[in-house]
Amino acid sequence: MSTSKMIAATIRQVAFKQITPTFTRITQNTLWSKSSLCNSHLLINSNRFLHGRTSVTRKALLASSTANPLRQYTTNSPIVNKEKTNVNQAPALATATVQEENMNETAQKDKHEKRVSEIKDAKLIFNQAFKNVQDVVGRENMRFPKEIIWLMGAPGSGKGTHTPAILRARGITNPPISMSSLLSTPECKELINKGLMISDGKVVENLLNALLDCEPEVGVLVDGFPRSEVQVECLKLFHERMHELRKEFKHTPLKDFFPRPTFRICVLYVDEEISVNRQLMRGKLVKEHNAQVLRSGKGEIKEERVTDYDEMLIRARYQIFKDHYSCLLKLSKIFPFHLINAVGSIDSVMRIILKEFEYQSSLELEHDTYEAISHIPLATKIGVHARQDLIRRLEHYCEAEPEIFAKAVGFIDQEVTPMVARHAISGQALVRSQNPILSDPKIVEIVISILSERGYAVTMDERVHETPKRVDPETWQIILDRTHVYALNVRFPQHHIQPLEQKF
């Protein structure tokens, strides 16, 4: 081979070595882009399939007002450019992962704190509203109807249309309470016309006053409550307060005025387009009716709603209904119910409503059964005054029976505390003891009370172990040796050890 040919071959080899890595990276990037595009198509098709299988009701309620675009992954992803990632980047990636986990934990914590804040706010709002009304009428006159139907639904779902039939079917003679009519002050009307919500405190107080104006012997229908998560909490508190009033006046001459409350939930649903068309049609018919009344001088003028003529306001009202879908989910956990499809005829929708009321009635106890067990405290209420009772018991034992109190404290110091310290990380300790002082129920009560006051959850179990000791030669009876073993299950908050971060 000549010298010129050898030089040309060497140049080709060097050029090929330099071009090959570049070509490889280009090929990898191209394959990654195609793979990413295929995955995007698969995700879109899977979403279409899922939404196609979802019912119309749930799809419309959960649909977002704006579609979120899919994330587009570029070739700068660390998965593609693996050759650019070195050992020095590992701590940075680990730190980013830890930060993302911390952000998720923070979001969950914020969500929990928001939920707790809503409950606290609802208690403050309801208690203040109830107190304001009670200070005016007196506690003995807080007489509410026995049966209350809470009618809710999407705008244009036919709540006003079905109200008369519901009243006839349930034998309700009290006039229905419409929250939109109840909040008819100029300030409230201005907020409603803008598609905004009115303060929950004002809503609850006006509602309580309206319920007190009803005949308590018969039921009443409330249209448009609750509409927010705070109002759902207020409704739960109202149901509990009615039970408290019944228990308070049960053995008094006023017991008949405080019956057992019965709540029925009725939620009508139509999708957004049907809602818009119905409201626009209603506005058109009201205008034609009022024009006919003005021409003929016969009939009554109907109220013309601003929201029946402006499609943007109509859609804004429907968006509020969708935004507060979470409050319906929360309400269904307190008072189980189903959404009612209100697209059909009046008769068919009414049959569904009555069937729903039968379902809700089947979830309640009969009157006699309820009366037989109503004295047993609810699990959610058993601990309300437990702290005050605990303090009173400990103060009494410390002052009136100091010797027994000292024995209980000594037992905790000698046998319980060392075992708890040994299992401090696990959050639970099982203490077995044969100490005879635990045969005294009073000492057991003091031990449990002291540990409960210090933040421990304690349960105790007593077992008797029988061991054959001897046989009586005259009667051949087996004489047993009985040993009492006391087991205390002590639970406390578990300590979480954070894993060490990778430094190398």
UniProtKB/TrEMBL annotation:
<keyword id="KW-0547">Nucleotide-binding</keyword>
<dbReference type="GO" id="GO:0019205">
    <property type="term" value="F:nucleobase-containing compound kinase activity"/>
</dbReference>
<dbReference type="Pfam" id="PF00406">
    <property type="entry name" value="ADK"/>
</dbReference>
<dbReference type="InterPro" id="IPR033690">
    <property type="entry name" value="Adenylat_kinase_CS"/>
</dbReference>
<dbReference type="InterPro" id="IPR000850">
    <property type="entry name" value="Adenylat/UMP-CMP_kin"/>
</dbReference>
<dbReference type="GO" id="GO:0006139">
    <property type="term" value="P:nucleobase-containing compound metabolic process"/>
</dbReference>
<keyword id="KW-0808">Transferase</keyword>
<comment type="similarity">
    <text>Belongs to the adenylate kinase family.</text>
</comment>
<protein>
    <recommendedName>
        <fullName>Adenylate kinase</fullName>
    </recommendedName>
</protein>
<dbReference type="GO" id="GO:0005524">
    <property type="term" value="F:ATP binding"/>
</dbReference>
<dbReference type="InterPro" id="IPR027417">
    <property type="entry name" value="P-loop_NTPase"/>
</dbReference>
<keyword id="KW-0418">Kinase</keyword>
